[in-house]
Amino acid sequence: MVTIYFTFEPREDLKQPLLAEFPQADFLFDKKLDVEKLAQSEILVTYGEDLKEEHLQHADKLQWIFVASAGIEKMPAEAIAKRNILVSNVRGIHKKPMTESILAHILSLKRVLPFIYEQQQKKEWNKKARPTELNGSTALIIGPGAIGGEVGRILQAFDVHTIGCNRSGKEAPYMNETYKLDDLKEQLPKADIILSMLPSTKETKHMLTREHFELMKSSAIFMNFGRGDLVETDTLVGVLRDKLIEHAVLDVYEIEPLPADSPLWDLNNVTLSPHFSSHSSRYLERSLDIFKPSLKKWLNGERDLENKMNILRGY
């Protein structure tokens, strides 16, 4: 009997159907990683933040790690690769809630909702703000994968022209145009909205520099919903202080939680979201919808699982 170890405990309404569907498996559930339970397990289900290199020394039976998250940057990648442990994740699970979050921020800024809320608090009838329209604008999506493609699909419904930038330059879904990341600088001046969905890799770390922001329109909205190390924090603070762009919306940061003394808190042209744009009451339900078909394959001896990852590349 295969042993499957969850380092978190699903709700009962999700746990019981899982147990009923796989009576041939022995499930262990915990609220934090326990080395003794890990040592018994062939499969580990984790959010990806608790597994350390030293834990693997005790995990002789471990063959597959299912990460109930899209990011794996906190995992001991080299040690996992050396053991040839298969890793898969829930890539694509975030596309619905994150698309709603991203669109909410864009429409909020375009239709001046922060100003409206502020005037309501003051009990003032004030029409001095200048709403703008989303339709007819151009959005540049850096990393148009599952989430970026879903954002592109919805933006196109608002008559937004979408440009994608990816590693290959191959056509991406719901992008009117697609270019290589190498061509990013040529595309930046065209965009009213620049959205990054890039993962954290050696290639993407501090990839955006001040020069990139200098190429953007002064009216541009920059949004980072990928990973916080895309831009050095000091660079971003300088860009916003110098008002090189109109506004930034950040859901991710170099240091999380964002320190209380970060100068970002004091800027009036940035919206700070605490890395929860993907949160949803349906998050774990969707994770298990990916895990269960893969577990069926695994139990049948198949290893071509959904969202199988190259742990060293980070995606």
Structural features:
315 residues, alpha/beta, Rossmann fold, five-stranded parallel sheet, 12 strands
The domain tally reads 2
Mean pLDDT: 96
Alpha-carbon Rg, integer:
22 Å
pLDDT < 50 runs, ≥5 residues: none
Structural class: alpha/beta
Query: What fraction of the residues are assigned to beta strands by DSSP?
Result: 15-25%
User: Based on DSSP secondary structure assignment, what is the total number of beta strands?
Assistant: 12
Could you describe the largest sheet, including whether it forms a barrel?
7 strands, parallel
Query: What is the third-level CATH name, the topology of the largest domain?
Result: Rossmann fold
Overall form? elongated
Description:
With 315 residues, the protein is of the alpha/beta class. The protein folds into two domains: 2-93 and 282-299, 3-Layer(aba) Sandwich (Rossmann fold); 95-272, NAD(P)-binding Rossmann-like Domain (Rossmann fold, 3-Layer(aba) Sandwich), CATH 3.40.50.720. It is 31% helix and 17% strand. The strands form two sheets. The chain has a seven-stranded parallel beta sheet with strand order 8-7-6-9-10-11-12, covered by helices on one side. A five-stranded parallel beta sheet has the order 2-1-3-4-5, with helices on one face. Helix 10 links the parallel strand 10 and strand 11. Helix 5 (95-110) crosses helix 7. The longest helix is centred in the C-terminal third of the chain and has 17 residues, at 283-299.
